[in-house]
Amino acid sequence: MEKGRIAFFAKVIGACDPIYTDEAAARAAGYRNVVAPPTFIFGAEGDSGARMKLIDTLKIDLGKVLHGEQRFDYHAPVCAGDTLRLESKVSDIYDKKGGALEFVVSDTRVTNQLGEHVADLHSVIVVRHA
């Protein structure tokens, strides 16, 4: 996680706490470095390419994909300088409306370079079928 990218993200979402932008403030608050704001980790998942790999593997037409749900469960802070490991799995696939809508549920466990379990990500994409 790069400090400048975290600070930019904080600015964009209006997160004004200096722990997101100022290393001294973050350290004074007990963190290793600047802290990533909530939802920042979603970008890390995007950067990993896991979502696109899943869509490609399941041969899903990207034009038919809708974002259904996203949830973050945090267990420890993510800080600038951290290296994250994301382990994703498809936990369910089901359909509704007689197969017109297919739901793909994925869960991702996130750990840092210290082996700490920092977050769990849960997402659902909806695929529209004719």
From TrEMBL:
<dbReference type="InterPro" id="IPR016709">
    <property type="entry name" value="HadA-like"/>
</dbReference>
<feature type="domain" description="FAS1-like dehydratase">
    <location>
        <begin position="2"/>
        <end position="120"/>
    </location>
</feature>
<protein>
    <submittedName>
        <fullName>Acyl dehydratase</fullName>
    </submittedName>
</protein>
<dbReference type="Pfam" id="PF13452">
    <property type="entry name" value="FAS1_DH_region"/>
</dbReference>
<dbReference type="InterPro" id="IPR029069">
    <property type="entry name" value="HotDog_dom_sf"/>
</dbReference>
<dbReference type="InterPro" id="IPR039569">
    <property type="entry name" value="FAS1-like_DH_region"/>
</dbReference>
